[in-house]
Amino acid sequence: MKTIFILAMLLLVGISNAQAITKKDILNHYADLAFVVYNDSLSSAEALEKSLQLLVKQPTEKNLQAAKTAWKVARVPYQQTEAYRFGNAIVDEWEGKVNAWPLDEGLIDYVASDYGDSSEDNTLYTANVIANKNLKLSGNTVDASNINKILLSETLHEIDGVEANVATGYHAIEFLLWGQDLNGTNHGAGQRPASDFNRKNCTNGHCDRRAQYLLVAADLLIDDLKWMVKQWTKQGEARLSLLKDEAEGINTIFTGMGSLSYGELAGERIKLGVMLHDPEEEHDCFSDNTHNSHYYDIQGIQNVYTGSYKTLTGAWLSGPSLSDLVAATNKQVDNSLRSNITASLQAAKVLVDSAEKEGVSYDQLLAEGNEAGNRKIMGVVNALLEQTKSIELAVQTVGLANIEFEGSDSLDSPQAVFQ
């Protein structure tokens, strides 16, 4: 009922005169949208959990496909929350629990022989929690006989300070549903069989523990999303922190937009993969859903800038926004930034169409020697770089001090990528 009430209030909000919009108006609406988009992420994760429960109860290929579809649906609202990162410290400190990547999948489950059996950076590279009830961690034996929330979130997740030891979140669930993508830069996602969850006719062993891991990971994801939804309620810590200082709050919104646009998305998630021609650099590498993740990241930036969001029910929410603030000072700068975000979305839509209409997946596009495919991906990078320039100009237009956005070696020091 709380969500319905807030949606109703947002639909009633309307300030026609851009000059009348205050920074406080913008910050409050930004926080209201955060509440709604995180709540949509929670709702879709709850639907995902139900599909996983059915898969474990009835491990058929049909139910596995339904669970995969539910996972992809759940990614749509979540990716649109990523524009709330970077500026909001409370989001950044939390985000690694739900969306950390890439992950060393050998920590969780069985892997192909060519995965290798060791890594200089990770002693738990092939720990295989699902197959082993006792684990050697830093010389100590850890009881992993009971796969529960404490084991995954407090013991294993990023254990030994290794970021690739991802034990929780969307990508751990993704790996458990799809398995490894062994196709390299050829077409095809992971091909885990539904029988991997079938206790009576089990393939690849330990189906009971695999099923348990899947359900615990889903339950943890829901716990984490519930926590974040709470942070954006009227008395939530994220909202109150944002509203403490209006100028700093506006700075926070721009920081999230610019850092996601530049260092995180254009750099770490896209250009780096093209430079290395490495499908392991795909954000959703097991499911071949990377094209959608990139698209909805950019959609999230547009949502934040324009103060608008399309909910899971199809309703559009809108209210006071950074766009209004910029336009009140310089309409041309506002129009330019809006146009550049639209151009970025159009460039990302090329990747979506390639995967979903033409049957050419993202990992095929980034393959070495696929010049046309590489150009399509770099089209998104170039559009994001132009978009970032417009964000910087918008920052100056509203009189804020220069903001330092997150960077990336792939953009700032390309030679360092190969050292």
Please describe the topology of this protein:
Blueprint: H1 2-12, H2 23-57, H3 61-79, H4 89-99, E1 134-137, E2 140-143, H5 149-156, H6 170-178, H7 207-231, H8 237-243, H9 246-276, H10 290-306, E3 308-310, E4 316-318, H11 322-329, H12 331-356, H13 362-365, H14 371-397, H15 409-412
Antiparallel strand pairs: 1-2, 3-4
Helix pairs in contact: 1-2, 2-3, 2-7, 2-8, 2-9, 3-6, 3-10, 4-7, 6-7, 9-10, 9-14, 10-12, 11-12, 12-14
What report would you give on this structure?
By secondary structure, the protein is mainly α. It contains 15 helices and four strands. The chain has a two-stranded antiparallel sheet. Strands 3-4 form a two-stranded antiparallel sheet. The longest helix has 35 residues.
Short overview:
With 419 residues, the chain is mainly alpha-helical. 58% of the residues lie in helices and 3% in strands. Strand 3 and strand 4 (316-318) form a beta hairpin.
Report the β-strand fraction as a percent range: under 5%
Tell me the helix content: 55-70%
Q: Roughly what is the average pLDDT, rounded to an integer?
A: 93
How far from one another are the termini? Answer: 54 Å
Low-confidence parts lasting 5 or more residues at pLDDT below 50? Answer: 1-18
Q: Can you write the helix and strand succession as a string?
A: HHHHEEHHHHHHEEHHHHH
- Report the count of strand segments: 4
Strand neighbour order, sheet with most strands? 1-2
Radius of gyration, in angstroms, nearest whole number: 22 Å
Q: How many strands, what sense, and barrel or not for the largest sheet? A: 2 strands, antiparallel
